[in-house]
Amino acid sequence: MNRVGKEDFEEHMRRLGRLSHPNLLPLISYYYRKEEKLLIHDYVPNKSLAHLLHGEGRRVKKLVHWPARLKLVKGVARALQYLYDELPMLTVPHGHLKSSNILLNDRFEPLLTDYSLVPVMNQSHSAQLMVAFKSPERRQFGRSSKKSDVWCLGILILEILTGRPPSYDPPPQPEAATANGDLVGAVASTPEGEWLEKVVDADMIRKGEDEESKGEMVKLIKIGMACCEAAVDSRWELKTAVESIEELKGGKEEDANDEHSFYSSIDGDEFASVAIN
């Protein structure tokens, strides 16, 4: 993170410090040295969404029910829209949206981290690390767009619905999509009528799940795929995606906070402090 001098770095940190949203992890302080910069956040108890979905076997609490997953998607989408509204000068207002950068508070609500750091990072460092720089337009044309974060949101939606870890690089052959973790390819190669059986994480569907909820799951998969369109002109605008997500229903609101939406508790702690060289 040596792209800017101290004055510009501090100005950008002040800008981030003024941001306030229920689904953003606030920046409370920072430390600056020429060789090292630290961003300081509050402690968050329930680790990351990636850990919840994929980590450490059965000791880890894993999301089960549709209401809880939809609540997560809505929280992430709202926070991303907030960043777009508050930081319109940035091409990629988040830049690094992925499940390991989403922490979960004591109510298992999502808190976005590592956001809006592209302006203070080296170009080469950004290209290597930032998820938005893996978008199709960046790979093909060497430039990001306002819809690069939308692509990241689409990948995240598919990850939450399938329970599968994503790959941000396309497979060498279309038939290798599923094996390589290419979620877009895996969904695209499966007929829509088989999505609930072959694409959706079986742990998400409760026994006796009503048909309306299943229909909403299919709608969210379609939203995720629309966000992942390789052609920027065909990819949805963030506003369209957020509005479509908000229309989805996940059952009673309290279901998303119901203890039965989760397995047993997570072992261990997660600190939200971020160190960037």
Automatic annotation (TrEMBL):
Gene3D superfamilies: Phosphorylase Kinase, domain 1 (3.30.200.20), Transferase(Phosphotransferase) domain 1 (1.10.510.10). Residues 1-223 form the Protein kinase domain. SUPFAM superfamilies: Protein kinase-like (PK-like). PROSITE patterns: PROTEIN_KINASE_DOM. One of its GO terms (molecular function) is protein kinase activity. Pfam families: Pkinase. PANTHER family: LEUCINE-RICH REPEAT RECEPTOR-LIKE PROTEIN KINASE PXC1 (PTHR48007), OS08G0521200 PROTEIN (PTHR48007:SF49). This is Protein kinase domain-containing protein. It comes from Oryza barthii.
